[in-house]
Amino acid sequence: MQWTYEQQPIITSTAEKLLIQAGAGSGKTTTLVGYATHHSTLRILYLCYNKSVEIAARGRFPRNVINKTAHGLAYAVYGSQYSHKQTNNLRLTDIARAIDSQDWELVRDVVATLNNFMASADDDIHRTHFPRFRDRNMLTSAQERFLKQGLSVARSVWNRMKDLADTGMPITHDGYLKLYQLSKPDLSQRFDCILLDEAQDVNPVIADIVRIQRIRKVAVGDRHQQIYRFRGAEDALNAPWMRGAEAHYLTQSFRFGPAVAHVANIILSYKGETRALQGLGPKTLVKRSLPEELPHRTFIHRTVIGVIENALSLVPTQPRIYWVGGIDSYSLRDLEDLFLFSRGRRQEVQNRKLLRDYRDYAQYVEIAEVSQDSEMLRSIKIIEAYPDLPQRILALRSCTVDNELDATVTLTTGHKAKGLEWDFVGLYDDFTADPLAPDLERGRRDDELNLLYVAVTRAMKILALNTMVLSIMQRHVDARSSRG
């Protein structure tokens, strides 16, 4: 293997703390494999971002490397004990039933508080986890009482989640991960080094597990690909416990050519980035739309609604559709049940829990509006937009393929596209939040710019830009012209 001048010093480094800022398509995983191979006497834990990365890594890394997700580590110790009461997510109705309350504002705040706590590095549930008043310094007496009640209820529910015998209150996967973090695990008996992948988007609970280890640490990621801040993710690349780390940069992308790198660099310039991404891959064309005759194309969307809308519009062309993450991850079955529920066709609803949780569709809408639950509100919007939804969903399922090699179209959100790449990529026009709007809060601006950067850097041969990216590029040109 011929290593680049950027890769070689990383691979041979013996630093106790090593920091790698890796641009999109810059050979991050290949570099880590080289590092692990060079340090063959070290017992290395490669802490993977998700399960799919773990599976892909198994065939690439040498035998001195164990590939695990944080949840995988936690499952062996705690998750297996709770297998009889595990659930994927805390539902509003689960909490309402557990606390015997129809106060949906309180229920929503308790769910959010628990989720915030489980993603945090904190030992106890306290005010900073409570979303409603988190950023307020002064509260009225009524608000103080509501906060005290909410925190008390959240702590009570957490205690029930932890109780192995209490099968009436399930525990989430994040719940047993939190228990693992609270146990302060010592990995030094099994490993000499830990590789933290996607370190720019790691939950504080996972970051804390890495922080406390007294073994060699290698953090790798790209701060411009931080797209899960809304879930509480933090940038471990810039965490205090990584201060003094030996820092390296991978700026040479082998995924795409100069044209895509140019688009990416314009986007990043609005974040103040001065270290340019170099497009050293095959020549990549940048267009306004993808050619019609392509054997396969990928569309990247901002929202799940955008994915579904695009899919519905493609049905008349009889495509073979591959859904990144699987078609069921886009809530189509739940949407169909909810549609039937909204029409009073209760006997046709497959998800009987929907019937148990809600008296009727009007109550579902009421709870959605009061709690402002984004998933519920999104479902309502789709149902209102498509009065023939079951027929359309049936058509979509008949177009769906399980193997992407059989597909003519791949559909994904920008978030699901992270870490993936395709030959021909088109950006859908549902990126509606203008990251350059002067009244946009800086954190939100960076989130939107990061997501656009992730989206444009998925393309290897042709990239079709949407209205938002074209507008950003035009404003960049105008700004340069005005400067002289």
Give the SSE layout.
Layout: H1 7-11, E1 17-22, H2 28-38, E2 44-48, H3 51-57, E3 65-69, H4 70-77, E4 86-87, H5 92-99, H6 104-119, H7 141-162, E5 171-172, H8 173-182, E6 193-196, H9 204-211, E7 216-221, E8 246-250, E9 252-253, H10 258-269, E10 278-279, E11 285-287, E12 297-301, H11 304-314, E13 321-323, H12 332-342, H13 352-357, H14 361-371, H15 374-385, H16 389-399, E14 409-413, H17 414-417, E15 422-427, H18 442-456, E16 459-464, H19 467-482
Parallel strand pairs: 1-7, 1-8, 2-3, 2-6, 4-5, 6-7, 9-10, 11-16, 12-14, 12-15, 13-14, 15-16
CATH class annotation of the largest domain = Alpha Beta
Low-pLDDT regions: none
Our count of domains comes out at 3
Helix content: 40-55%
The name of the CATH architecture of the largest domain is: 3-Layer(aba) Sandwich
Main sheet attributes: strand count, strand direction, barrel closure: 6 strands, parallel
Oligomerization state: single chain
Task: State the helix count.
Answer: 19
How would you explain this protein's 3D organization?
The protein has 3 domains: 7-76 and 185-250, Rossmann fold (3-Layer(aba) Sandwich); 83-180, no CATH class; 258-319 and 408-482, P-loop containing nucleotide triphosphate hydrolases (Rossmann fold). It is built from 19 helices and 16 strands. The chain has helices spanning 7-11, 28-38, 51-57, 70-77, 92-99, 104-119, 141-162, 173-182, 204-211, 258-269, 304-314, 332-342, 352-357, 361-371, 374-385, 389-399, 414-417, 442-456, 467-482, and strands at 17-22, 44-48, 65-69, 86-87, 171-172, 193-196, 216-221, 246-250, 252-253, 278-279, 285-287, 297-301, 321-323, 409-413, 422-427, 459-464. It is globular and about 65 Å long.
